[in-house]
Amino acid sequence: MGIAAIVLAVGDIVRLGFLTSNMATLPQVPATTLLYNDWYPAMRSERLSGKKLETTMLMGIPMVLGRKDDGTLFAMRDSCPHRGIPLSCGWFDGKEVTCKYHGWAFEPGSGQCTLIPSLTSHDTLDARRIFATAFPCEERDGYAWVYVSEPGMGRARLEAIRPAVPELPKFGAKFRSAHLVADLPCNVDHGIIGLMDPAHGPFVHQAWWWRKRASIHEKEKHFEPIPEGFRMSAHAPSGNSAPYKLLGVYGEPITTTIDFVLPNRRFETIRCGPKWFSSLTTVTPTVANACRIDVYAAWNIFYAIPLVTTIAKFFGKRFVEQDRMTMVQQSEGLRYDPSLMLIDDADRPAKWYFALKQARLDGEPARHPMSGPVSLRWRS
């Protein structure tokens, strides 16, 4: 993105508990656990228009999405409850989705069946008591966000526990924005701990417009616990990243704050007087051994410069492609089931992530691996 660290990098390890040793060697364990009862970005909402149906994989679930005549979005499991044919093979008239096989029709927001054409006056089956699987779906920041509940959860309980849809913080009405996306050939845990990896920059992202390996120096950052996550407290950004140096033209102090929040969200905010940059990066599981990174950024920095969005997207794509290529290469090594390790202090955020994830899986989200503020040091 050219200004902020859209950081996705070399991942290590899969699901494990919180480690306290300076270095731990761990066996590779298949990542079979996913975090349900939360919102995930399914696709860009601009793809959903008219009477088109779009398909995607999310959390290992085939989904079909669309936009109703009233402008609201819907997401359904791409499977008719009658014989299992994908609903995306059928038709959508702006109000109902109709199965291609036998013409069963469904209201897509609730999944309720509205018509079974084969029924006669002698049948007692009430079609409206049949439901295809539908998921809450809302539009935010150019994405169709889908709430994926735990399998078997009742509708009443789902409504009671469902949190607000994530949204990128913005600090003014006038701003520019951009989206980036990349598919990664790794499980979601490998992708997510790359979001918080602070040591790969001078190696994966060597470039004249970002940083050089020779720029490595020791850093100290302060972290604090937040609900279901942790925060890198407001700090002056690293002076060895070229984009940050550009902000010096404003003559204002520069601060960066980075939050990670379960299940998969990294928020970064850069403030420079009245100027700001804000980004939300998510890593979303598509299938068991693949995930997708989405980046949405908004800013008023260099707002008046022509082509600033085009330039930002150009460098942002190159940045994310460096990460994607690294993950492709890493996946080759992981095929042979190597032992992996996490070290202190650079890998401590990854340890916090695994501990937070385990606490939620155990039904104890209040169990936090951080008892208070922590200072970490590393070289990058």
UniProtKB/TrEMBL annotation:
A GO CC term attached to the entry: membrane
GO MF entries: 2 iron, 2 sulfur cluster binding; dioxygenase activity; metal ion binding
Main localization (coarse): membrane
Rieske domain: residues covered: 39-146
Family annotation (InterPro entries): Cholesterol_7-desaturase, Rieske_2Fe-2S, Rieske_2Fe-2S_sf
Compartment(s) of residence: Membrane
Entry keyword set: 2Fe-2S, Dioxygenase, Iron, Iron-sulfur, Membrane, Metal-binding, Oxidoreductase, Transmembrane, Transmembrane helix
The keyword Transmembrane is assigned to this record: yes
Family annotation (SUPFAM superfamilies): Bet v1-like (SSF55961), ISP domain (SSF50022)
S-adenosyl-L-methionine in keyword set: no
Protein name as it appears in the record: Phenylpropionate dioxygenase-like ring-hydroxylating dioxygenase large terminal subunit
